[in-house]
Structures are given as structure tokens and as C-alpha cells.
Known about the structure:
Elements lengths: L1 H14 L1 H39 L3 E6 L13 H8 L4 E16 L2 E10 L3 H6 L4 E4 L9 E4 L1 H6 L10 E4 L2 E9 L11 E4 H7 L8 E6 L5 H16 L4 E4 L1 H44 L1 H9 L4 H40 L11 H18 L1 H8 L3 H6 L1
Parallel strand pairs: 3-8, 5-7
Antiparallel strand pairs: 1-9, 1-10, 2-3, 2-6, 2-9, 4-7, 5-8, 6-7
Helix pairs in contact: 1-10, 2-8, 2-10, 8-10, 8-11, 8-12, 10-11, 10-12
Amino acid sequence: MILDIFKLIVNDLYKRKFSTLLTLLAISLGILSVFVIVLLSSGLEESIKGEFESFGTNRIFITSSTGGFQSESSFVGETEINILKNQPYITQVYPYYAQSAQLKYSNEFIGKSIQAFEMDKNSFEDIGLEIEFGRYPRLGEEGVLVIGPEFAQNGFSKEISLGSNIEISEEKYKVIGITKSLGNPEDDNQVYADLNSIRKLFNKPDSVSFLYVIIDEGEEISIAENNIERILNNRLGEDTFEITTPEQFLEQVSSILDIVKYTFGGIAFVAIIVGGLGIINTMYVIVTEKTKDIGIMKSVGATNEIILMMYMTQAGMFGFLGAILGTFIGYFLALGIESIAQSSGFAFLEISVDISIVLGLLVFGFVIGVLAGFLPSYKASKLTIIDTLRK
């Protein structure tokens, strides 16, 4: 009996190719939207987590409470920096200074923020940067620059090569290194210079934009954060600085991703509702056209329950097949977005498919179909043989 009912459903779907396809497309758009949102958000979240883990979780950033990371005025002095360096739980403290400047290369001028710190091989490795072309600067070496690959290629109209001279406020600096790509355009578009060199050039001998603090491995980051906060509160006063950890950065990114997911999730919900209405409409048309067939089935012994199950299963098949179509298209759409993102410089975005998500969406599609088809199926099951003969 069940096999016969299934054959009737399949034959009916096959005979109505065009209307079946339209109904499948309607429900598949909703499933597709959900699938793409899940793939992209989970892929992006996992990729960002991976970047943070490879970067290290034992880092603390200390910034001015008003200027942030790009502040050009000092909020902390050498005394406070030395106090932090002498703490037993701190491995290293790197003062950073961000200075906006006019850069000239090959008779072209641009405005650019320069990231200045005490550059050498150890400091680059500590901040997660690797020189791909050229060499690491020596500690205290002035008049040299290290640039990101994006800036080397697109910072000026003419590509910057190793050994090129770039003028910063009419002072020549030689490019001695190009970093390996970190996977996003902002990080790959940086210009790095020696801290003392830039301070002298702009006559700002004590300026610090932010502190990059490395905590000893095995130390509890929250305890270190509290101790640093206590020290700086005593030295600088409260509300003059902000302390940020990688976990806090990750929480901020997750919050942004949640907003994106909820926004596009609302759009996907509307698409699913539209798909469900399409199934309802199609099922009412099928029940109307199959009225006489229902009468014949009842005359040979089909019960209301069998009729109800038959048409609810058919409605569920619309949802199930629509989910298959939606996940299939959604997967390749997500791969396309991944490819575009990586070609645009966001190499950290990687899409991976969890089979449990696919199975869950298939079940979800079937359930949506069954729910959408309940009223038409119930109407069909309540038809009497006399009603079918009148039709």
C-alpha cells in the first residue's frame, strides 16, 4: 500500500513538471538562503577563530580611551612602559606609534598611516608577521621600511619593489622587506618603520599610540589584564586607557556576525514563507484536479487517514526536493563567494560543509512541506464519494 501511494505521488509530480519546478524553486530559495548564511557565517567564524589561535591568545592591547589604535598623541610614558616590562608575567611590551604622513614614490603622492615600532626579526615574529621577500630590519636601523604585499602592488600606480625609495615628509626611506600575506587587505596594506626614526622625523619623541603586550605562556590572561589595569590606574588614572584581549576582539566580531545572520535570516524566513504558500497553492490545485480520483480510491476502500497521509507526503516531497535543490545551489553559491573573497584578499575565508547541517535542512524542508500541505490534504481526506461525483 505504501509503495503504491509513493508511486502515485512520484507519477503525479512527474506529470506536473512545470508547476512542480516552480514550487520547488519557491521553497528552494528559502532553504538556499539559510544554507548560504550558515556556511558563510560558520566558515568566517571558524576562520577568524583559527587566525586568532595562530596569532596567539596571550596578547593584550592597551590604547588611549579617546584616540584608539590610531592616536597620534601619547597616553603613556616610558616610565609606565618600563614598569610593565619588569612585571614577572609579561614577556615583552612593544610601544606602537601610528603617524599619518605624505608618501611619495615615482612622482606620486598619497596620504598614509605609518605603523612604527622597534623593528627586528623577533618583534615581527611576536606580532605574527613574516618577511616573504627581502630581509628583517636590524634593531634600531633607521631609514628603512617594511611593507605589506597589498601596499607593494597597489599602494601606488607603479608597483613597489625591494630596494625602492619612498619619501616620507621629504625624507628617503628604503624598502628592505615585503611581508607575507595575512589574508586580509587591511593588514596587507600596512607600512612599517622604526619607532625612533618616525618619532624624530615628526618631532614627537615620546608619542605612543598603543602598547602591544605579550603575556608569558601559561599565565592566566584575565589575571594579567587585572594586574596591568591596577598598575596603570595608579600611574595614569582611571578612564584614560582601554585594555583589549583577543577574546574581546573575537566577541566583537561574533556580535557583528550575529547581526548579519539575524538580518539575512529574516530575509530567508520570508523566502520560506513564500515557498510554503506556493506549496499550499499547488496542493489545493492538485486536490481540486484529483477530486474524482479521490472518490475512486475511497470507493475501493481508501480511508480518510490514507488520503491525508498521501497528500501530506506529496506536500512533504515538495519541501524535501526543494531543500535538495536549495542546498545544492547554495553550496556552489557559497563556494563562489569564497572564491571572490579570496581573490579580493580575504584569504582566511574557508567554506566547509557539515553533513549534519545538510541533513537537518532536508528534514526541515520536508517538515515545512508537510505543514504547508496539511490544510489541502485535510480537505482532500474529508471529501465523500458523493462530493467527488458532484465534481
